[in-house]
Amino acid sequence: MKLFHFLLLIAGLASGQAAEPLFRLPPGFSIERVAGPPAIQFPMFATLDDKGRLYVTESSGGDLYAELKALVRNCRISLLEDRDGDGRYESASVFADKLTQPMGLVWRDGKLYAADPPDLVTFEDTDGDGHADKRTVVLTGFGHTDNGSLHGLTFGPDGWLYFTMGDPDSYDLRGPDGSRAHGTTGALPRCRADGSGVEIVSRGFENLIEVIFLPDGSIIGTMTWYQLPNQGLRDALVQLLEGGQFPLHAIDKRVAHLQFNVVLPPIALLPAIAHSGLEIYHGASFPAEMRGDLFSAEHNSRKIARHRLTPKGASYAVESFDFVTTDDPDVHFSDVLEDADGSLLLVDTGSWYVHHCPTGHIRHSPAAGGIYRVRFGDKHFVRPDKIGPLATTARQPAKPLESPDLLAKLKSQDEVNAAAAARMLGRQADTNAAPELERLLQSPSLRLRLAAAEALAHCGSSSNAAALIAALAGPTDDFLEHALTFALHRLANDSALRRALDHPSPKVQRAALLLLDQAPFHGAPESAVIARLNSTDPRLQETARWILRRHTEWGEAGAAFLQHLLQSTSQTAPETRALAEFLPLFRKNQKVLATLAESLSPRNDRLRPEQRIRLLEAVSAIDWGEVPPALRDDITQLLRDPNPSIRSAAVRTASALRLSDVDDALGTIAHDGTQPATLRMEALRELVRRRSALEPREMNFLLEELSATNSLAVRLAASEALTTTKLSSGQMAAFIKAVRGDSLISPASVLAAVQRNTLAPETSVALLDYLAASLEAGWTISAEQLEKASASIPQRQRAEVEKLLAKLTESIARQRQQLGEFEPLLSGGDRVRGERLFFEKAQCTVCHRVWENGGKVGPDLTRIGAIRAGRDLIESIVIPSATIAQGYETLIVTTKDGESHTGVRVGKAEDPLVLRDASGAEITVHGRQIERIERSKLSLMPEGLLNSLTRDEVRDLLAYLQRLK
Fold first, then answer.
1. What value, to the nearest 5°, has the Cα angle with vertex 943 and ends 938 and 949?
2. DSSP code, position 897
3. d(Cα 455, Cα 793) in Å, to the nearest integer?
4. Structure pTM?
5. Partners of residue 345 on adjacent β-strands
6. Residue 500, burial from CB neighbour count under 10 angstroms (0-12, 13-18, 19+)
7. Contact (Cβ atoms closer than 8 angstroms) between residue 147 and residue 159
């Protein structure tokens, strides 16, 4: 599968239409466009009915987020028909219109189920004219703030409707039978076809996109943001289990649900591909080895990927291959589905969706997308009515079997059939299956044990608890252990779980502790938790610690645990994380607080420097309200500690906690020329936030640090300090002079400083001259920021501001021209030279990370070549504010005491909110301190990066970035 051939599509083009994209496919496969504009535009998702007709949801092409939030009804569903049997859809009509952004649909029993937030609806064509004349609301109550709203509609083999939700849209769904499902994080809900029985299968997703069912009944889904980007990996294929939780929002704090302290792992971890539609191949048209493979649409990487699953423990290992790829930056696949003849239909949504996605905003006419068909060999399309009923597909599963058939299949020697029967019996809650399911818990196959455990949760009784415990003590993996624990929660009683605490297996003890501490059980014994806080079994230890964090009233246990953490020689991430999670919860527990103050005290000589630093970092993240006096005294004394690293940590802590009466200590550090420059900078940045003016010696120090001979990180830190304080007219002039000609310090920094000051006429002249020169050098200046800053410029010079605004328009036009000029540089570069440029001259690693090297201000670029087209890479460098990657939006946070902080959010937490500024420095702001949060239209990334490079150097840098895959 490593060899590809090229096929340039020319058939079916409308007069004057641009050339079709160039696609790469495996040998023997062909692709053709079978539908496109003007019949349809911006197609998103599609489904087939039992007559082979294709229903396609179409976007309006507008701002998805804004339209969803306002419930703008500009979208539609089109019905496409192939009336002459050639595989192309020559007939298109509007089946339903006036919809909100419809991000999912499925056909079942004469009805089209569709997402129409805040509703899940059915459309019916009762008079057979090809247009829906009946709309019925199945469920309502779906949030609609962004692309995490209702999507991914699929019928399961049980006949239930499954659909997906992302965070933070939330949902509150009430079925006609009184059932209810509600929550605030991404979830996989399901219901009967009429909306009854609505319930949650799994939760905790940032965005679960779509799911399919394997032949054995397992559920596999595509998920974006399985984790925060790490070494270029973010998205995932996941296996969904009932009660399963996933990392970014593992616990929905506003909804009562069974909680696990360990999340389910991905079966495949992928780059930020933003995969979307998912299909399992059932047909016989493709090579035999592809039957049962999954095909996923990858929006960002412009490809359809093929995934081969092989058994691994209770789950699967995944091997992924490129199937259909293109370098065309305007192609963005959003869905893939199997047609009746075994060909695949691919949906390309075009280039309209630019919200948080790596496709350019610089578009005069967004590509409108289309539908493509992929075939193997020389086989021609066969109309569905010539091959019988439409074949079973992921979204059109066969009708459920009845219990007698399933009970027979449960004893099948075929593992797939037996597992599928077990899961179906579980869905039917057939208690007659319990004895055979208990027997299957002893199967040599972990996958069969998993299916039996999932089924027993609904078919079994308390008499099956012993068998579940025995299975848990045997060979397991994450998936099987989860399913067995979930089944025990439903079937075991309190006394059985308390007895299980004495079981020799740590896995059994762990499940017993976890469940006893949650309803309907009566609570885990404190002594049992304490005895396992430092267990040699890591997962049992973590479970005990997780339960401790739920009991902030346990003072003795909390104090003992804190002492253990502080005395531990381990500096591993789990130990650091345990401290950070523990302290905020126990901050009001007096015994823990006393232990904390005693440990932090400079008089405590038992704590090593790295332990004290770790403790300071944990203390700084806590919203104390009023910092306890003992802690305040400890931190103040540590500002004078002989160790520079401890002093640095104390400065950051004093800053985060807004400690008063530490200005003298900060000033001593900032003004001491013998101290490390980075430490002096940290202290001075905190000082300038507290005072209305800079002393001359402080200004001189910052100007020295702005010198072009210093690293970019140091210069950015100095620039950030100068933008957050009041400057005299002379100081402002000196600042302008220091950054003039600096190819990496943005004029945005200068304008931010201007907004805090009133300028003298001569300083205004220097400023306007500097801005004009910056525009000539290729910078783009925010018109909004320039207009705000103009209030500080004397009235007689406002005309010059108007001239600058006119030049700004010209500058933007030049930047667009520059995009075209750089495009030829996408080939022919030397990636080795480009790597040196990235790490040295261009100083990209101040903000960006590749593998383990670099900063974290901007996106991780470890696999950027796999998810961004070359043209979009150029745009991101030349005009970084045109498209800002999701998760790296610039926030402007104004506090109630008048401070303003600008940066990108660190992590997902909202309270405390941690911002990282352009220099990499972090500041913590607690929710009660925040007056307002605004999203800036400007990226923190400097726009002048390429100004300092020759064309050959740009070519080499692009070669390096494109090879990062």
1. 170
2. T
3. 73
4. 0.87
5. 337, 373
6. buried
7. no
3-state secondary structure of 912: coil
C-alpha distance from residue 502 to each of 464, 465, 484, 496 (Å): 19, 15, 18, 11
Higher pLDDT, 135 or 905: 135
DSSP letters along 524-572, please? --HHHHHTTTT-SSHHHHHHHHHHHHT-TT-HHHHHHHHHHHHH-----
> How many secondary structure helices (H) and strands (E) does the chain include?
30, 35
Residues 6+ apart with CB under 8 A from 652: 616, 617, 620, 682, 922
Instruction: Give me the amino acid identity at 826.
Output: L
Q: What phi-psi label fits residue 81: left (phi over 0), alpha (psi between -120 and 50 degrees) or beta?
A: beta
Which letter does DSSP use for residue 80 in this model? E
Identify the H or E element spanning 76: strand 75-81
Q: For the residues of 371-392, what is the DSSP string, one character each?
A: EEEEEETTPPP--GGGSSSPPP
CB 22, CB 326: distance < 8 Å: yes
pLDDT digits (tens, 9 = 90+) for 114-136: 999 999 999 999 999 999 999 99
- What whole-number distance in Å separates Cα of residue 945 and Cα of residue 846? 12
Instruction: Mention every residue, 6+ apart, whose C-beta is less than 8 A from residue 417.
Output: 409
The secondary element (H helix, E strand) that includes residue 450 is: helix 446-459
Residue 234 phi, psi dihedral angles, 5° rounding? -145, -50
- What is the arrangement of strands in the sheet containing 235-240, beginning at the earlier edge strand? 207-213, 219-224, 235-240, 268-270
In this structure, the strands spanning 54-58 and 75-81 are antiparallel
Taking the C-alpha atoms of residue 189 and residue 160, their distance in angstroms, rounded to an integer, is 10
pLDDT digits (tens, 9 = 90+) for 440-468: 999 999 999 999 999 999 999 999 999 99
DSSP 17-60: PPPPPEEEE-TTEEEEEEE-TTT--SEEEEEE-TTS-EEEEE--
Q: Which amino acid is at 937?
A: K
Q: What is the pLDDT of residues 469-528, one digit of tens each?
A: 999 999 999 999 999 999 999 999 999 999 999 999 999 999 999 999 999 998 999 999
The 3-state secondary structure of 118-172 reads CEEEEEECCCCCCCCCEEEEEEECECCCCCCCCEEEEECCCCCEEEEEECCCCEE
| CB-based burial, 8-41: b 16+ in 10 Å, e otherwise | ebeeeeeeeeeebbebbbbeebbbbbbbbeebbb
- Pairing mode, if any, of strands 315-326 and 303-312? antiparallel
Element (H, E) at 769: helix 761-776
- Here the tokens at position 297 are 């649409």
Q: Which residues pair with 902 in a beta bridge?
A: 892
Give the pLDDT confidence score for residue 383 in this predicted structure.
56
Question: What CA–CA distance (Å, rounded) separates 487 from 471?
Answer: 11
What percent of the chain lies above the pLDDT cut of 90?
58
